[in-house]
Amino acid sequence: MAAAPELLPYEQIRKDLFRPLSGVSRNYLLATLCAFVVGAAGLVAWGYQLGSGMGVTGLRRPVYWGFYIVDFVFWIGISHAGTLISAILRLTDAAWRKPVTRAAEAITVFALMIGGMFPIIHLGRAWLFFWLLPYPNSRLLWPNFRSPLLWDLTAIVTYLTGSVIYLYLPLIPDMAQLAEHNTPWRRRFYRTLSLGWTGSDREWHALERAMKLMSCIILAVAVSVHTVVAWDFAMAIAPMWHSTIFGPYFVAGAIFSGIAALLVVMAALRKILHLEDYLTRHHFNNLAKLLLLMSLLWFYFTIAENLTVWYGNEPKEMAVFGARTRAHYAPYFWIMVVLNFVIPFVLLGIRRLRTIRTATIAASCVLAGMWLERFVIVVPTLANPRLPAASGFYAPTWVEIAITAATFAAMAMLYMVFSKLFPIIAVWEFKPHPQEED
Amino acid sequence: MQHRWGMTIDLDRCTGCEACVVACHAENNLPVSNPAQAAEGRTAHWIRIDRYYEGEFPDIKVKYMPVLCQQCDEAPCEPVCPVYATYHNPEGLNVQVYNRCVGTFYCANNCPYTVRYFNWFAPEWPEPLHLQHNPDVAVRMAGVMEKCTFCIQRIQRGKEDAAQEGRPLADGDIQPACVQSCPAEAMVFGDLNDPASKVSRLAQSGRATRLLEELGTKPKVIYLQKVK
User: Best interface-test mutation with B: which of A49, A50, A54 has the largest number of B CBs within 10 A?
Assistant: First the structure.
């Protein structure tokens, strides 16, 4: 096990963490190209959908929400990686958070940018999405504030704004350092973005206070965002959507998948950027324990949700429950239980098995499992409406699959660009006494 | 007096002949789907005949139920639309404003009767049906939601005709296409606010039930059937 990164000399930390910013390797270009191709394919698919109509998707009556809404909830869930983890760790002053926070905060911003696209991709007339915004318009109409979709829009825009600020603030001291010795265009780039940071006492105090405040605000916003996403479903009177538990269930699921995403990204960064001295077994161990906790919590919520429906035995709800657990969608449901509970429980619950590798495997399983969880929540309910004569099935088409794949490529691409422009670990946090130096 | 339009459907009379479905298609410019689209679940019928089976073969009985927009007084589709494309008009109808719809699908998900239909593509008609469009009804574009309007164009025409002739609107002056075409005369349309109208009297019948009444949606379509 490597020593804690806090014990390394500061000069070496600076060198190690600024190194990935310069130079572009062949593998990097290749990876970017792959991500670009997959992303472009998704754009082509979306263009095709815009041109022909929503009929090119697998959506059909009565399943009006499909892959896009699943992707939407999934990515908004992933976005809970950053804020929640980094805000909680900041507020509790956990020393081990230092190499983890920025990677997490960047996930939040990118996942939100991607997730926020899906409600637009999903619109029948996507080019009119701005009709949902409250602005003075020729139609002399406000949007309908009673609609959960409006709450959703408000929550996500607030969260994105907050997350960008939350990512940006602790970047400032690092960018000021980067502006010192660099190529001309980079110097100008970092100097502009660092807003004239000089490192005076006043500035450090202001930054510290701003981060404390933002941590508190972003925590509240993060919880509310996924609650509102849950309410998109829970406010509808559809069987097994209209559930009081959905708010907290979704928040727990979001944090769960967020931690999983963070673990996967950390494992990738550790390998690719050779950050073995910074992202140590200690960090993975701590996050793996957190993942285990969330897995147990998720399982508890899942049991609470399904057991009450099964015991109540109400016919309309049982139609959905049956579709989920015994009929058409049963494979998705049971694979979800294995991926989200059985595998993490075994790999992370037994201390001997808990290593960086198994934590990464468990986290990857959780990511797939949480995507399935959203599918299992969205589709079977719609496929089994209250009038049994109207029931139907849903299977995606290549358009939906291509757009879904493109979002993963977009995430990879955004992350790769980010890690070339900014140090993925906050360097200044390792500075021994920031207030006393300049 | 404000009108409050309603309909009764006598399930003991309905033969499931689907004349109402055809009439609705012709009246409301509904696109005609081909067998492939039908197999995909991409048909649009503002009124459809749901079939339910009672008993075991060979001792089996089929029950038909025409299902159209129930024009709920407490419509679940209305509050969820972010752009007010679906709203309650002063005469109690759930009106869909096509030009305002952006296609979030939320109204359709929240409709317990699954009577909302989406325009997956730009509508098409096989020749020569494209020549018989009803000029009083808009042709809907791709990407918007639509549903039964209680033939609002006929309601409008009926009121205008009565006004022109200087007489009050009489019961039975207005008939939606489905009501007009029902050979079994199972459907009756009229003003629920007029206690003397046929539909009001039928709505008081001991056979009157409402679909999924327990949800509190207060539908204005009333089904008549003998409850055993």
Answer: A54
